[in-house]
């Protein structure tokens, strides 16, 4: 077995399409000791309300990540250099039981966080973030949330269920896991049931920026707002792939037109370079609805790569 520091093999020795599919060809390591940044899959999707399939998101993202290379030109950083980067595999989940799965995630991810690892989670539907936030808040205290998503995910219940992919951030506020007054939710768009779908998030204290407002702000304006809002609070970055327009990411459970391009998303993430985040996720990738070129999984893999670059430049 290899020893830390971990990193991908030399692509000039073996082609990128060979070997077991791990994120960016990093070694699969069972224990988090000696890992600085770890990719973690959470293959759970039975808290979705429209199209299922995100249980296969981690698999699809890993497969699409094989072409990623060490050097990030726009940020002028080698994302693997001088650090130990590994794929820590998938967490155990319970299909059909979002509440129990959140407990399982909190326990398993908590052990990873306690080992000093910065996890980049590959989802899974967005309900998995509740367990993630529990794990991080247990170590860091209440968190500032930076969310890029088509939906605020602050509903109280749906079909009588309190734990599904539209409620995690309301539950997180109720549990004291988040600091809404230090948090920014960006990209919300699409038709709604009522104005309260967005107003409820604002009433909780979140700074909510709609999709059209995000377009007007641009990456620099958005980043300034995020930096000022978050300040020195421990911050968590969550990216729902439906933040992207379905022209760029059709493989997701609840697509909404009028979203960002993949290039837009890259520019937004690069604009917050220098900020420190305790953890990240990219969720709601449903490969069964993807195009023949797997553009959604490819976009998600590159979003996770941008997150990895942010960890390399964390202030």
What's the gist of this structure?
The chain is an alpha/beta fold and 315 residues long. Helix content is 31%, strand content 16%. The chain has helices spanning 57-64, 98-114, 129-140, 168-174, 196-203, 211-230, 262-270, 295-312, and strands at residues 37-42, 71-72, 77-78, 85-90, 118-123, 144-148, 184-188, 207-210, 235-240, 277-283.
Describe the structure.
The structure is a single chain. With 315 residues, the protein is α/β, with parallel strands linked by helices. It has a single domain, classed as Ureohydrolase domain (Arginase, Chain A, 3-Layer(aba) Sandwich). 31% of the residues lie in helices and 16% in strands. The chain is built from eight helices and ten strands. The strands form two sheets. An eight-stranded parallel sheet has the order 4-1-5-10-9-6-7-8, with helices on both faces. Helix 3 (129-140) packs parallel to helix 4 (168-174) and helix 6 packs parallel to helix 7 (262-270). The longest helix has 20 residues, at 211-230. The model has no long low-confidence stretch (mean pLDDT 95).
């Amino acid at each position: 077995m290899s020893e830390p520091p971990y990193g991908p093999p030399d692509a000039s020795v073996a082609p990128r399409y060979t070997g077991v599919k791990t994120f960016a060809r990093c070694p699969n390591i069972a224990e988090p000791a000696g890992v600085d940044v770890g990719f973690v899959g959470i293959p759970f999707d039975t808290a979705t309300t429209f199209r299922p399939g995100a249980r296969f998101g981690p698999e699809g993202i890993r497969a699409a990540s094989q072409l990623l290379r060490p050097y990030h030109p726009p940020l002028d950083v080698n994302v693997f250099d001088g650090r130990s980067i590994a794929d820590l595999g998938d967490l155990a989940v319970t299909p059909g039981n979002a509440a129990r799965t959140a407990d399982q995630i909190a326990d398993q991810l908590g052990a990873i966080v306690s080992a000093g690892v910065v996890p980049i989670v590959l989802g899974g539907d967005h309900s998995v973030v509740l367990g993630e936030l529990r794990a991080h808040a247990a170590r860091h205290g209440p968190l500032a949330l930076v969310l890029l998503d088509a939906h605020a995910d602050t509903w109280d219940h749906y079909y009588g269920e309190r734990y599904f992919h539209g409620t995690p951030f309301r539950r997180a506020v109720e549990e004291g896991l988040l600091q809404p007054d230090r948090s920014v939710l960006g990209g919300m768009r699409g038709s709604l049931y009522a104005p309260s779908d967005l107003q409820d998030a604002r009433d909780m204290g979140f700074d909510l920026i709609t999709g059209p407002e995000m377009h007007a702000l641009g990456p620099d304006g958005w980043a300034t707002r995020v930096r000022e809002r978050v300040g020195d609070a421990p911050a968590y970055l969550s990216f729902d792939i439906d933040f992207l327009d379905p022209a760029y990411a059709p493989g997701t459970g609840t697509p909404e037109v009028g979203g960002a391009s993949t290039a837009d998303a890259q520019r937004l993430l690069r604009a917050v370079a220098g900020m420190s985040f305790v953890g990240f996720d990219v969720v709601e990738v449903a490969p069964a609805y993807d195009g023949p070129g797997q553009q959604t999984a490819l976009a998600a893999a590159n979003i996770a790569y941008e997150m990895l670059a942010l960890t390399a430049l964390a202030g």
